[in-house]
Amino acid sequence: MNANRKAILDTAHAELGTVERPAVSNKTKYGEWYGMNGVKWCAIFVSWVYDKAGFPLGAIQAPKGIHHCQAAHNYFKSKNMLVKEPQPGDVVIFDWRGDGHADHIGIFKKWTNTAKTTFESYEGNTATGNESDGGKVMLRNRSLNSVKSFVSPEVLGRESADIQSDITIGDRGADVVKLQKLLIEASYAIVADGWFGNKTKKAVSDFQESQKMNVTGIADTVTIGALQEFVSDKKQKTKLSGTIVKAGYSGEAVIKIQERLNELGKAKIAVTGIFDAATTKAVKEFQKAKNLKTDGIVGPKTLKAMNLIL
After folding, report:
1. Which phi and psi (to 5°) does residue 139 adopt?
2. What is the pLDDT of residues 164-182, one digit of tens each?
3. Rg of the chain taking only CA atoms, in angstroms
4. For the domain 252-305, what is the CATH superfamily, name and number?
5. Measured between alpha carbons, how far is 249 from 27 in angstroms, rounded to an integer?
6. Are 162 and 85 within 8 A, CB to CB?
């Protein structure tokens, strides 16, 4: 690790335990320095760390850096700064739900396993149970599946040319989850687990073949664009209102139901987009609690009780 990156980590480490004053106010020394106090500050914290370490990010959103995670991702992507293999001190942007939206941001410290699927990151405005607005500076343990992007800011100098581009076999992260959800919506029977394995590769290959494209099994920008258009057209043709969803079904409707069950229930189920046995059980428990017919089938009455708009 070079001295520049060590300075970033040392600066972040020195801030561990810093909290908002008063609590739940979003007011910190970082916001005061940035000129926007009382707002969500995870991105502002990253800007502050880089500045105090001697490597200011520059006028991206504001004179001193960034304050929105999605804007940061879009900017860094437009400047070709996204990387697959992060180095200590790089920026990490999170997408908790795999929906393509950047939810949180931090500073990558190190991998915590040899498979490089879990890592530590310094983060501002976080806490256990409130990942993106928890009010504290912490060193968090994170999964690669929750990552939207890793960023190697040009102010640190490039030590790797491994620029993020296509999604292919062995890749992990939020971009893979987003791809898998699109494939599920296109009726491919896979699981949105964040790992581009053989099943995901086959689904990509099958989609490419069905659309008379070059069959590579690699989700490049052309394939993803075609998949997005295919799913959009499918949504227009298939109206979910009044639809009955039950065991064996897959797609966006199932994803929404699973996410809603997790929000409403005590037991958590995997959001896979496939109506499996665990989903059926959770639906039955919900129906029983709401005095509905306990059949595990999500029809109009159950959808209404879930307050879902499908």
Report:
1. -100, 115
2. 568 999 998 888 998 999 9
3. 21
4. PGBD-like superfamily/PGBD (1.10.101.10)
5. 46
6. yes
